[in-house]
Amino acid sequence: MRTECKSNRFKFQALGNREVLGQFDGGTITSDGGGVLLRELERRAGILKRFSECFTDFRNSEKVEHPVFSLVCQRIYGLALGYEDLNDHDILRSDPLMAVLCERDDPTGSHRKRESDQGKALAGKSTLNRLELTKSDADEKSRYKKIVLDSQRVDDLLLDVFIESYKKVPSRIILDLDATDDPVHGNQEGRFFHGYYKEYCYLPLYIFCGEALLCARLRPSNIDASEGSIEELTRIVNRIRLSWPDVEIIIRGDSGFCREQIMSWCEENHVGYVLGLAKNSRLVEMIKEELTEAEVKHQETGKASRIYADFYYQTRDSWRCARRVIGKAEFLSKGANPRFVVTSLSGESIDGADLYERMYCARGDMENRIKEQQLYLFADRTSTGQMRSNQIRLYFSSIAYVLLSALRRIGLKGTELAKAQCQTIRLKLLKVGAQIRVTFRKVWLSFAEGYPDCGLFEKVYRNIRHSFG
């Protein structure tokens, strides 16, 4: 893409008898050439198109240069390509490749109405922020910000994309619930200090099914980690059962979600659960023999040893009935490490060791998905003053994740990057240098000849084309 650097020439250290000179005169070049693969996927899956339809645009259509779909594409492709801030778009708006991704008929921006905008096909930060900062009650009479997002439709879209990703109905799905910290950036709405994280933060709730993101709900941090889980599960489970009435649904979470209300809701709605259970003296006493046996094995072998106990347990006050608990009696070089899980699954369907090791411990992958979104798709850039606008930013990050997850599932199927994280996909596949030439009838992309993964690029391109017919 273009640069504002005006230096005529750079003289670097010589190479033998040759001078090494540099100059910003290579023409129109982008560092994001692989972004066309995202566009190829979007043209077939329509994820961003449907997301843009979650907005209502009250602007005067006769004066609109940047449709909502173009603004949405610009923001989400920017996140997917590694541009976390709105400020970045004051430079990106001049990139013809980004304009191609956003379906602009004039990718060079040479026909913009105002002279100061010519050469800039896309919107700047001041236009883009209207997607985030518009109030929920805005209408055509509002002064500046008139693009209103319907959160309910976004929630529905996440579930629709998830259900569409299956070619046949699954027999069982596992929904992972977790909460994480999202540090605030000043005196924002919903700002509270969280004792566990030792910082002022939000406490968003995430629900995943494997790699698929089903819910990303921003919340203040002065609440229990499980707050709002039943409402989200009710919405998600009802929608899934409309499409898959016979699917077995199991929820999985750590001890922060081991609450009587959640377990009772699951039992009443025929939803299974596997939840971490915080240890206490009564529970530890119930696996005392197993802990002693594990200690003996550790002393004999010098290695970590674990034995599983399977029993029924009921709290003195909070639980309405006794429930199946799996106790892991583990002994390490540092000493005893007892852990517990409560479940509605029967011993006939799965034994204690398998339930703990294969089913419960697998929830750790969800933590990687959350980190992937926060670190690489900037879900923690919730720096506006209002909770609503920060939730919208979380939605943008979530849709960017859904888009890259679809690229991983469809485009990277059968390749060495089939399980790669977003950052690896970005560096290996999307960050490709390319020269852009725009003519009356064509947009030419000349990719760097030295790009080492051209075979991967071609494989992804063909996977996308073949997947949608």
Structure, explained:
This protein is of the alpha+beta class. It folds into 2 domains: 166 residues, no CATH class; 225 residues, Transposase Inhibitor Protein From Tn5, Chain A, domain 1, CATH 3.90.350. Helices cover 38% and strands 20% of the residues. The strands form 5 sheets. Strands 6, 10, 11, 12, 13, 14, 15, 16 and 17 form a 9-stranded mixed sheet that branches. The model has no long low-confidence stretch (mean pLDDT 94).
* Proportion of helical residues: 25-40%
Please provide the count of β strands: 19
The Cα radius of gyration reads: 26 Å
Broad shape: globular
The number of helical segments is: 17
- Outline the low-pLDDT stretches: none
Class by alpha and beta content: alpha+beta
> What is the domain tally?
2
Mean pLDDT: 94
Gross CATH architecture of the largest domain: Alpha-Beta Complex
Percentage of residues in strands: 15-25%
Biggest sheet architecture = 9 strands, mixed
In CATH's first tier, which class of the largest domain applies? Alpha Beta
Provide the CATH topology of the largest domain.
Transposase Inhibitor Protein From Tn5, Chain A, domain 1
Provide key terms for this protein.
nine-stranded mixed beta sheet, globular, three-stranded antiparallel beta sheet, Transposase Inhibitor Protein From Tn5, Chain A, domain 1, 469 residues, alpha+beta, 2 domains
